[in-house]
């Protein structure tokens, strides 16, 4: 049974409207559940406020991992019918969804059909024992395992953990203790998932340009090196584009950098929409962009570049409500020459883009050294 309570805290903010002070009462809601079933649970999220001249209003949204834990699917593996059925009732009454298997083989078969969060298994079973089952589960699945045994002299905690078990309990089992251990394993798995998701987000942020949502220049050189290595190893073609928006500086000077940022962001979307899944686009710096085109010959790269040119040329920008402006882009294109250095490859496409600029822009220039043709 949930027993909600609350308490108030007072906070003072200084510096709003000169030196005036505003007292803010923040009501923090705490959610408590039965200790053995869910433990103490009180998480606060989505705290935000609306500012008015002298009034702060905080809206606090209650959040608890209680429901997430209760949605967990638990598999009980034991060849003793009485123990298995008793545990099933306890787990089910605690609010979890429970599945049963009388041996390791049956458990492995069930795991191919049902997504399980935690397996609770006996060690001593006919056929495959619980430690071997644990080893198989940890090798093939991302599932927590709690190992049970009444044979403390023959099996150690260290051996179970070495096989990949998340926890270890002895028979006769105190069900309150088992539920606490199950809750701990579920919480640890949830924390691990959140940590992994955060790491993935941070990795993505580290290689992404915040304005255009394309990859950044640091990641460009990492990927280009990989693609060059792949082109040399498998003798596949590889092409590169360098793009520079024409006359963006005067546009910024006239309408402001915020309008210029809108141009860059929309141009990033134009580039993305004209590429295949295997291609990748990058903000190289300022108003310059690059595109890596694996398994693409030079003449095919020119077609891609011309498609991007045409798309930007017909894209209207409205820095003022009554004004519509069209921009163009200069593009350099080139194809990789087997065994050439990375710098030579990048410098050549840069020169080609510069030629496009010098000829007035809104054009694609493709050149490779004559001795490579």
Keywords:
11 helices, Alpha-Beta Plaits, 373 residues, 5-stranded parallel sheet, disordered N terminus, 18 strands, 40% helix, Rossmann fold, alpha/beta, single chain, elongated, 6-stranded mixed sheet
Q: What's a quick, concise take on this entry?
A:
The chain contains eleven helices and 18 strands. The chain is of the alpha/beta class and 373 residues long.
Could you explain the architecture of this structure?
The protein has 373 residues and is an alpha/beta fold. It folds into 3 domains: 60 residues, no CATH class; 123 residues, Rossmann fold, CATH 3.40.50.2300; 158 residues, Reverse transcriptase/Diguanylate cyclase domain (Alpha-Beta Plaits, 2-Layer Sandwich), CATH 3.30.70. It contains 11 helices and 18 strands. The strands form 5 sheets. A 6-stranded mixed β-sheet has the order 11-13-14-12-17-18, with helices on both faces. It has a 5-stranded parallel β-sheet with strand order 7-6-8-9-10, sandwiched between helices. Strand 15 and strand 16 form a beta hairpin. Helix 8 crosses helix 9. The longest helix has 32 residues. It is elongated and about 85 Å long.
């Amino acid at each position: 049974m949930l027993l909600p309570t609350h308490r108030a805290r007072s906070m003072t903010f200084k510096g709003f409207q000169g030196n005036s002070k505003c007292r803010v009462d923040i009501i923090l809601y705490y959610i408590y559940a039965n200790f053995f079933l869910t433990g103490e649970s009180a998480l606060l999220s989505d705290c935000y406020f609306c500012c008015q001249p002298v009034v702060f209003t905080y809206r606090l949204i209650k959040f608890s991992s209680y429901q997430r834990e209760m949605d967990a699917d638990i598999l009980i593996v034991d060849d003793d019918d009485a123990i298995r059925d008793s545990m099933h009732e306890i787990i089910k009454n605690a609010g979890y969804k429970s599945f049963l298997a009388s041996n390791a083989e049956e458990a492995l078969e069930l795991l191919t059909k049902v997504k399980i969060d935690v397996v609770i298994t006996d060690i001593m079973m006919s056929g495959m024992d619980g430690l071997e089952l644990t080893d198989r589960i940890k090798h093939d699945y991302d599932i927590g395992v709690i190992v049970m045994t009444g044979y403390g002299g023959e099996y150690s905690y260290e051996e179970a953990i070495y096989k990949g078990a998340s926890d270890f309990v002895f028979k006769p089992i105190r069900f309150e203790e088992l539920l606490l251990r199950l809750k701990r394993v579920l919480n640890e798995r949830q924390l691990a998932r959140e940590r992994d998701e955060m790491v993935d987000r941070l990795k993505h942020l580290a290689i992404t340009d915040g304005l255009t949502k394309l990859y950044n220049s640091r990641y460009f050189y990492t990927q280009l090196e990989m693609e060059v290595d792949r082109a040399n190893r498998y003798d596949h073609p590889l092409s590169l584009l360098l793009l520079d928006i024409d006359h963006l500086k005067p546009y910024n000077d006239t309408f402001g950098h915020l309008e210029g940022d809108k141009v860059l962001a929309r141009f990033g979307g134009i580039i993305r929409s004209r590429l295949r899944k295997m291609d990748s686009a990058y903000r190289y710096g300022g108003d310059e962009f690059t595109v890596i085109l694996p398994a693409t010959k030079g003449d095919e790269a020119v077609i891609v570049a011309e498609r991007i040119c045409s798309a930007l040329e017909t894209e209207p920008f409205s820095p003022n409500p009554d004004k519509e402006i069209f921009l163009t882009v200069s593009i350099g294109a080139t194809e990789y020459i087997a065994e050439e250095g990375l710098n030579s490859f990048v410098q050549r496409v840069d020169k080609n883009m510069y030629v496009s600029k010098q000829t007035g822009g809104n054009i694609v220039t493709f050149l490779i050294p004559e001795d490579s043709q």
